[in-house]
Amino acid sequence: MISITDTIITIAYVVIIVTIGLWTGTRKKKGTADSSGEYFLAGKTLRWPMIGLALFATNISCLHLVSLAQSGFDTGLLNGNFEWMAAFTLILLAVLFIPFYIRSGVSTLPDFLEKRYNKACRDWLAIISILSAIIIHIAFSFLAGGIVLKTLFGVNIYTSIIVIAAFTGLYTVVGGLRAVVVTETIQSIVLITGAIIITVFSWNKLGGWQPLKEVLAKNNALDKISMLRPIGDASGMSWLAVFLGYPVLGIWYWCADQTIVQRALGAKDENHAKAGALFCGFIKILPVFIFVMPGLFAYALYHSGALDLSSLQQTGANGAPLLNTKGIYTLMITQLVPKGLVGILVAALLSGLMSQIAGALNSIATLASYDLYKRFKPGTSDKRLVSVGRISAGIALIFSICLLPLLNQYQSLFEGINDVIAHIAPPITCVFLVGVFWGKASARSAQLTLWLGSVVGVVVFILNKLNPDTVIGKIPFMMMAFYLFCTCVFMQIIFSYVYPARHTAQSNKLYWRSVWEPLHAKGWSGIGNYKTLSTLLIVLMGVLYWIFK
Question: Cα(444)–Cα(270) distance, rounded to whole angstroms?
Fold first, then answer.
C-alpha cells in the first residue's frame, strides 16, 4: 500500500490528463467541430516529435513496464529484443510503407488494402484490426493495470479497471486523435521519467554494473545479460528465432496495425511522418535500459538479500515453493523509492495504461466509421461518422472488460500477447509486404491468403493449447510465426499465378518497381533526412547488439 501523499499525486495526475485531453479535443478551429478528418486524423497537422512520442506511448503500456521487468528478473535482457528489433521495423515503416500511405491519402490501413487489392481485403483487415485492438491493446493492458492498482491501493481489480476505463474513454471518445496524441506526448515524458527513476534507484541500491555481474556469476546466470542466445536455447528465443520470427510480428504491429500507424496517417506531410517513425525508433532503444534492466537489477538485489520478495512466495502444484514474479515491478516501487516519488512512478504506470487504451479506442472508432459503417452507407455525413466512432469506442471498451477473466489465465501477460500476435500476424504481414514489392500480387491472391492464412493460424493456435506436447506444440512461437509467414507467402505466390493481377490505375501506383525505388525520394536536407536518420539508427543498433551479444 502506498502513502496518502503518493495517492494524492496519482489522483491529481489523472485529473490533469483528463482535463488536458478534454480541453485539447474540444478546442478546434471554427467550423471543424464535427469534421471526421479533424476527429480521426487531427486534421493532418501532426509534426514529427509528437508523432514519434505518440507512437512510443501507444506501444508502451502499463503491461510493458510490469511484464518487461518480470522478464528481466526471469530471463534477463532476452525480451529486450522486442524493443530493439522494433527499430528496424520502424525504418521499414518510414522508408517502404509511409510513402504509399501518405500519397494515397488513406485514412485507414484497410482503406489502403482496398486501393492495392480489393474491398474484401479491406473488410477482413478492418474486422481483424478491431478485434486485435480490443484484445491486445486494451484488454491485456487493463489486466496488467488492474493487477498493479490492486497491489498498490488494495482496490478490487475490476473496480480499478472500470474507473480508469471511464476516465480514459471520456477524453478519447470526446476529443478524437488530437486529444489522444497531445495526452500521449505528455504521458510518454512522464512514463520515461518514472522508468528512469526506478532504474536509478535500483542501480544505486545494487552498487553498479560490477556487483550485478558478480551476483549473476555466483548464481550461474551470466547469460542473463546476453541479448543473443544460441540456437536450441531453452527459452525458445535463439538469435535465429528472433531474426526470423520478429520481423513477421513487427511488420504487422508497426507497419500494418491501425492503432499504431494512425499517428503517422495524421502527419502534416510525408517527411514529418517518416521523421516521426524514425524518432520513435531511437526512443525504442531506451526500454531495454529502463524497463527490462530494472528487473535484472531486482534479480541481483533479491539474491544479495537487498530486496524482500516474501510476499510473492507461493506453493507450486507439487508443494515446492514458487516465486510469482508478476509483482516484481510494484515491489521495487514500494521498497526502493522514497515517498513522494512513488506517486510519480504510479503516474508513470497509469500513463502507459491510459495512452495505449486511448490510442486503441481512437483507432477502433476510425475503423468502425470509415471501413465498416461508411462502407455500407457511403453518403454518411461527417457528423454521423463521428457519432458512430464514439459509440463504437464505447462498445469496444465494455467488450474488452468482459474479456478480462479469460485473458487472466496467462501466466505471463507479455508472452500471452506475443503468442496471440504470432498466430494472427503472418497473413497480414504477407499481403502488405508482398503487395508493396511485387506487382504481380493479385487482389484475389491477397483475399485468399488473408482468409486461409488466418484460419490456419487459428487452427494451429487452438491445437497448441489443446495439446502442447505435439511436434507443432513444441515449436517456439517466434519460429511458428516465421513458418506461418512462409506458408502465406507460398499461398499468395501460387494464387497470384492462378488468378493473375488486373491492376487499376490506382493500384498500379502502390507498389515499388525495385528495392531501391523507396530511396529515390529526396526528403529533408541535413541530419533530418530520412536516409541519414535510418543509417544512424542501423549503425547504433548494430553497435548495441555487438555490446550485448
Answer: 30
What's the first-to-final CA gap in the chain, in angstroms?
39
Flag whether pLDDT at 506 surpasses 70. Answer: yes
Alpha helices per DSSP H over 438-512 = 443-466, 477-498
Question: Chain-wide mean pLDDT for the chain?
Answer: 84
Grid cell for residue 254 = 508497426
Q: What is the largest CA-CA distance in the chain?
A: 70
CA angle in degrees (0–180, nearest 5) for 25-28-30? 155
Q: Are 436 and 518 within 8 A, CB to CB?
A: no
The fold of 4-408+516-547 is Sodium/glucose cotransporter (1.20.1730)
Distance CA 427, CA 455 (A): 10
Number of H helices, E strands in the chain: 25, 2
Distance of alpha carbon 82 from alpha carbon 413, whole angstroms:
14
Q: How many residues does the chain have?
A: 549
CA angle 298–304–307, rounded 5-degree value: 45
Task: Say if CB 293 and CB 71 are below 8 A apart.
Answer: no
Q: Does residue 433 carry a pLDDT above 50? A: yes
Of 339, 9, 354, 43, the closest CA to residue 188 belongs to 354
Q: Please determine, for residue 38, whether its predicted confidence score (pLDDT) is greater than 60.
A: no
> Among candidates 135, 136, 169, which has minimal Cα distance to 394?
169
pLDDT in tens, 129-151: 888 888 887 888 787 777 777 77
Distances (CA, A) of 50 to 91, 320, 394: 17, 50, 26
pLDDT at 285 over 50: yes
Hey, what's the cell of 163?
474507473
Q: What percent of the chain has pLDDT over 90?
A: 34
Question: How is residue 427 written as a grid cell?
Answer: 497473413
User: Which residues contact residue 548 at a Cβ distance below 8 angstroms, ignoring those fewer than 6 apart?
Assistant: 77, 225, 226, 227, 228, 288
Which pLDDT tens digit goes with each residue over 299-327? 999 998 888 888 777 766 666 677 777 77
